[in-house]
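Researcher: Re-running this chain for the archive, since the previous output was lost when a drive failed. Same request as before.
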Amino acid sequence: MPLVDLLAVAALVSLLVVAYRHPRRRVEATVSVAATGVVLATGLVSLAHARENVTELAPVVGFLVAILVVSQVCDRAGLFAAAGALLRGGGAVRLLTVAFLLAAAVTAVLSLDATVVLLTPVVVAAAVASGVPGRPAAYACLRMANSASLLLPVSNLTNLLALPSLSLTFAGFAATMAPVLVVVLVVEYVGLRLLFRADLTVPARPEPVPATPLPLVPTGVVVVMLAGFAVTSPLGVDPFWVAAAAALVLVVWGRLQGIMGLGEAVAAAHPEFALLVLALGVVVAAIADGFLGEAVADLVPTTTSYAALLAIAVLATVLANALTNLSATLLLVPLVAPLGDVAVLTALIGLNVGSGLTLSGSLANLLWRRTLRGAGGQGTDARTTSLAEFHRVSVLLTPVSLVAAVTALHLVA
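Model: Regenerated structure tokens:
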């Protein structure tokens, strides 16, 4: 392997380490700039090519920034706490079922970050209030953060990154993937019921908890935002503009209500993570033009038969768990795009559902584990955040969900 390729790989590894470790904001931004500078200096990617990649990624990153702000204002306003009230008052099976459906809905509408960072602590707290084990519901949030992100283009950054390679509108994407998601939900729910059947037999001992009213303005803005995605997509309007408008409305409202200042809104946007995503785009472009891109291109099937779709999904899963699903999306989607929409959607199944196989597959997995540890494991036991427990659940569920999803897409397409 040439030295310049090794430097590009080192730059990618440094970005992934930063993504995993989540250091201080200044460190994250510095590493992102340095990694970009390294691959530009090697000549593996030209300044013009890098600028082109950043321009293409800018709307996706802008959407990420906007949706993080929307989620944070909703959290400050009590939207997730109000949703948590729906979880109380029943046994462990009801808690799992409602948490499962809520997590799927939050992932689809507000993206997977909101599910793992904002909803998971609410679900675990509801388990404590109900006197039942929190493991089943906590894992429902984790599984839905990856698997339920199949439904809408805005549910996951991987979908947004792949959207320019698809000929589908927002509604067309949802209509195609809805049957696939239904199959995945059935597989995941049945699997969780079986894996945690012992925990689900514990009777509820609910503690009295005051009712939390649903915040009308944030709820209304989120509903209008979702409708806006569907209405503006056929007109060629990027989802970023709709999400940005929703974020602006909520920031102004939050400031008037005294629940979020402008500085807090900027912090909620996580600009250093946006910079990291842009840096990933440039670094992966450098690697894709080198040895790794050639190796992966040789593995991409040339047809869209059922066997070929399974191969694409497996390849996407392997790449996601080796490079994280964001890096894998940037590498793989351009290679499968010539095969058409069904190939790109199949790749997304591997990049989303398949990324739940290992802790490194998706940043959502790392965020979920860190969120539970930050909450002190309340409502769970030590097994919940252990690598052994994580991989026991993921290894048993992910392959079945992956094959079921590809089969469903093949039948639909």
